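Weekly modeling sync, notes
Attendees: AB, CL, MP (scribe)

Item 1: holo prediction request
CL wants a bound-state model with pyridoxal-5'-phosphate before deciding which constructs to order. AB pointed out that an apo prediction alone won't tell us much about the pocket. Agreed to run with the ligand included and paste results into these notes for async review.

Input as submitted:
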Amino acid sequence: MEKCKSLKEILLRIESACRRAGRDPSEVTLLGATKTVSPDTIRDFFECGLKVFGENRVQEFLKKYEVLKDLNIDWHFIGRLQSNKVKYLMGKISLIHSLDRVSLAQEIQKRADKAGVVQKVLIEVNIGEEKTKGGVLPADLFDLFKYTLSLKNLKVLGLMCIPPYTENPQEARHYFSKLRELRDTLEKEFSVELPHLSMGMSHDFEIAIEEGATIVRIGTLLFGERKR
Ligand SMILES: *Cc1c(COP(=O)(O)O)cnc(C)c1O
């Protein structure tokens, strides 16, 4: 198999989706979602030009981080985050996609302050209001965002969502447009800039791009089916 063939194909599909939406492809970052993906595979894709990778679990991330230290990888954290694990991420993760509660914001502030860094984050919104999913409910988003404005070592750059799974990805479109509208409203209400919308996965990233995604998080389509 040609090395990293999937990467080239996805980049082409991102480009066409941007063209359809009248957007510049440079506005969209491809993040490789690497849960269960081996460090060797990550290394291969890095060498093929993929620079941004996202992990879901702190333990798994720390192992890969050590093994791949020689590469200049831009690591993101995209999974549910327990407050007691925040301290392990400081200085290693450029963007946390999953801030969803005040207590987690407080912990990130505390640890970032200690480490002398400003941690960039996205607020994850439970856009489908599903009981089993992480993310702040849309109704609680404004309060959480307002609270983060008081934290000097934490900077919110935008919003993230994982919409309910739908067989037909067109059905996810209204969730993506809703996240964009929430972002636009926050920007107006608080006179801030929130440049990022992290939305879209293997089966629906093109729809997400049409609705304004700036980061698409792709696993299966890049690396194949997960074994776990
Ligand atoms: C696994 C995962 C992805 C990628 O999902 P695929 O369907 O494999 O592309 C994206 N975002 C998050 C938060 C994930 O956990």
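Recorded for review: The chain has a mean pLDDT of 97.
Action items: CL to compare against the apo run; MP to circulate these notes.
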